[in-house]
Amino acid sequence: MHAYSPPLDDMEFVLFDVFDAEAEWAGMPAFAEVDRALALAVLAEGGKLAANTLAPLYQPSDEEGARWNNGTVQAPSGFGEAFRELAGGGWFGVAGNPEYAGQGLPKMLTVPLEEMFWSANASLYLYGALTVGAAVCIDAHGDEELKRTYLPKLYSGEWTGAMALTEAHAGTDLGMIRTRAVPVGDDTFEITGTKIFITSGEHDLADNIVHLVLAKLPDAPAGSRGISLFLVPKFLTDGTRNSFASASIEHKMGIRGSATSVINYEAAIGRLIGGPNQGLANMFTMMNHARLAVGIQGLGLGELALQSSTDYARERLQGRSSTGPKNPDGEADSILVHPDVRRMLLTQRAFTEGGRAFAAYVGLMLDRAKHASSEEDRAAAQGAVDLLTPVVKAFVTDRGMDGALLAQQVYGGHGYIVEHGVEQIVRDARIAQIYEGTNGIQALDFTARKVLRDGGRALQQLIAGMRETPVREEFSAPLGEAFDVIASATQSLLAGSAQDPDMPGAVSVDFLELVGLGVYAWLWARMAGIDTPGEGGRSKVEVARFFYAKLLPKVFALKRSIEAGSTSVMALPEERF
Question: Which residues of 46-80 are buried (b: 16+ CB within 10 A; e: fewer)?
Answer without folding.
Answer: bbebbbebbbbbbbebbebbbebeeeebbbbebbe
